[in-house]
Design a protein that fits this description.
single chain; 193 residues; alpha/beta; Rossmann fold; 6-stranded parallel sheet; 6 helices
C-alpha cells in the first residue's frame, strides 16, 4: 500500500467539479464512514484517479493504485488492441504490487474505466490476487458512452463472497473520440508539419 503525495491543482479542481455529480449520482451511503476503507483504482487517462482522490479524501481512506507490472503502450489504439487480446484469452496481467494487509479493510472502493465493454484486465488480476470475502465492494466506474458493460458481473464473479453495492458511474469523453477529433482538426489545417 502506498500513500500518494498531496493532490495536484488539477485533481483538486476536478474533484470540486465532480463532488456535486457524486452527490446526485446515487453513490450509496450504505457504507458507514467510520469503517477502515481502502480506495483501489486503475486508470489510464486520469479520470478514474481524480475520483479515487476525492473518495479517499472524503472517507479518510487509504489509497492503492493498481498498476500492471508491464505498462500498457502509450498509444491508445495499441492499448485497445492489447486489452482486447488479453480479455479474449482470459489473461490476467501480473501487477506491480498487491495490498499487503487486505484483511484489515472492511470496505473497498474499487475504481476503473470500462475497456471493451468490461473491467480492464488489471482489475481482474487485482480481484483474483486478493481475498475479499466478507468485504463490502463499492465500485466507481468511468466509461466513454457505452455504459458499464459486464464489469459488475466480473467483479461479482471474481469476489463471490464479498458484498457488492451500488456505486458511482460517470461518462467521460473517450480517448478515441478525442484523438479522432484532434486528428480531423489537424488534417483540416492549412499549415505545414
Amino acid at each position: 500500500m502506498t500513500r500518494l503525495p498531496s493532490p495536484t491543482r488539477r485533481e483538486v479542481l476536478m474533484s470540486s467539479l465532480l463532488l456535486p455529480l457524486a452527490a446526485a449520482s446515487g453513490v450509496s451511503s450504505a457504507v458507514p464512514s467510520d469503517v477502515r476503507a481502502l480506495v483501489a483504482w486503475f486508470s489510464r487517462s486520469g479520470n478514474t484517479s481524480v475520483i479515487a482522490g476525492q473518495i479517499a479524501r472524503s472517507r479518510e481512506a487509504d489509497r492503492f493504485e493498481i498498476v500492471p507490472a508491464s505498462a500498457y503502450p502509450d498509444d491508445y489504439f495499441e492499448t485497445v488492441e492489447q486489452a482486447r487480446q488479453e480479455r479474449d484469452r482470459g489473461f490476467e496481467p501480473p501487477l506491480a504490487a498487491t495490498v499487503g494487509q487486505i484483511g484489515s479493510y472492511e470496505t473497498l472502493y474499487l475504481g476503473f474505466p470500462i475497456w471493451g465493454g468490461t473491467a480492464p484486465p488489471p482489475i481482474r488480476s487485482f480481484l483474483a490476487e486478493h481475498d475479499l470475502a466478507g468485504k463490502t465492494i463499492v465500485p466507481f466506474i468511468t466509461h466513454g458512452g457505452f455504459g458499464t458493460g459486464d464489469s459488475l458481473s466480473v467483479v461479482a464473479d471474481h469476489a463471490p463472497e464479498a458484498r457488492l453495492i451500488d456505486g458511482f458511474v460517470l461518462e467521460r469523453p473517450q480517448e478515441r473520440q478525442t484523438i479522432e477529433r484532434v486528428t480531423e482538426w489537424l488534417d483540416g489545417l492549412e499549415v505545414g508539419r
